[in-house]
Specification:
By secondary structure, this protein is α/β, with parallel strands linked by helices. It folds into two domains: 224 residues, P-loop containing nucleotide triphosphate hydrolases (Rossmann fold), CATH 3.40.50.300; 108 residues, Orthogonal Bundle (Helicase, Ruva Protein, domain 3), CATH 1.10.8.80. Helix content is 45%, strand content 16%. It has 15 helices and eleven strands. The strands form four sheets. Strands 2-5-8-1-9 form a five-stranded parallel β-sheet. A two-stranded antiparallel ribbon has the order 3-4. A hairpin with a 5-residue loop joins strand 3 and strand 4.
Length: 332
């Protein structure tokens, strides 16, 4: 029986629209942030949100878990937190016969949606406890490997202002995040709505509009979106253009960039572009989808050199300039 792709794409769009609307009951504005987080969830990737406190990052992920009807856990990272506080540990317990045995007590990482709040406040050893979970969707403790239930989604946050007593994420861990999304401050109209909802006694409630199986089904559909060779080649040009040692890179990249994106950056762009195409009602990836995904997929994978940091150069500006000067590949 032939599949009706147009119908599947339309159904995908409808479900995402319902999910957006449900999240909007609790969160005012922030449409680009909401879409970015939903996109990362459907791409089976993780997301890093950077913004000052009070912008609704915690509310967003909690609301998302309620709208999807799945388990949610939050970890508030602190310098004294240990890896076992995240993954869990083997405890000595007494069985029904009175014998002492080891039993694994699961940590908060065993969930569907995990909020890693202020992840840069934890020590590198504790930050690394999430690496296996984020990449392999599993946890290894005491020589035993435990699989995490799908879907598994990590949304980590960090505050860009308070750097004292923090431990910046190493490049290896940053590379595990599909997107890094900057959360903007709301405008005046949005602030009015925030005050109306939070100071007038209103208490919006969120209903589950999607199941865990729906997420897995949408992921499978997104993975099937075709991409033409010339569009994929355009994405690779942008990724290679972040490397200062390449002859094709721009002058700004040569001057201010120390290291360019890893191959995971190219994978992130393609995955995100496929879902963005479906968001737009198409079952094929265009160059516009590549341009949409490039900045959030590469901003944390493009490492500035000393001169770039000293001159307070914006990675986003460098990427925008790179995209502007990267020619599209001609269709064969």
């Amino acid at each position: 029986m032939a599949r009706d792709i147009a119908s599947e794409v339309a159904s995908f769009q409808e479900k995402i629209a319902i999910l957006r609307k449900e999240i909007g009951r609790m969160l005012v504005g922030q449409r680009e942030v909401i879409d970015g987080v939903i996109l990362c969830l459907l791409a089976d990737g993780q997301v890093l949100l950077e913004g000052v406190p009070g912008l609704g990052k915690t509310m967003l992920v909690r609301t998302l878990s309620e709208a999807i009807d799945c388990q949610f856990n939050r970890i508030q990272f602190t310098p004294d937190m240990m890896p076992s506080d995240i993954t869990g540990t083997n405890m000595i317990v007494e069985d029904e016969r009175g014998n002492k045995v080891f039993e694994f007590q699961k940590g908060p990482v065993f969930t569907n949606i995990l909020l890693a709040d202020e992840i840069n406040r934890a020590t590198p050893k504790t930050q690394a406890a999430l690496l296996e979970a984020m990449q392999e969707k599993s946890v290894t403790v005491g020589g035993h490997t435990y699989k995490l239930e799908a879907p598994f989604f990590v949304m980590a946050t960090q505050n860009p202002l308070e750097m004292e007593g923090t431990y910046p994420l190493p490049e290896a861990q940053l590379d595990r995040f599909l997107f890094k999304i900057d959360v903007p401050f709301p405008n005046k109209d949005e602030l009015h709505e925030v005050l109306r909802r939070t100071t007038a006694g209103e208490s919006p409630k969120v209903s589950a509009v999607m199941s865990k199986q729906d997420i897995l089904t949408l992921r499978a559909l997104a993975a099937e979106v075709p991409i033409a060779e010339h569009v994929q080649d355009y994405a690779l040009k942008i990724v290679l253009g972040t490397h200062p040692e390449m002859d094709t890179c721009s002058e700004r990249v040569k001057k201010y960039v120390r290291f360019g994106s890893s191959p995971r950056g190219a994978q992130a762009i393609i995955k995100a572009a496929k879902i963005h195409a479906i968001f737009d009602g198409r079952f094929n990836v265009s160059n516009d989808d590549i341009r949409f995904a490039a900045v959030p997929a590469l901003r944390h994978r493009t490492i500035l050199n000393f001169e770039g940091v000293a001159e307070n150069i914006s990675t986003d500006d460098i990427l925008a300039d790179l995209i502007k000067h990267t020619r599209e590949t001609a269709q064969k």
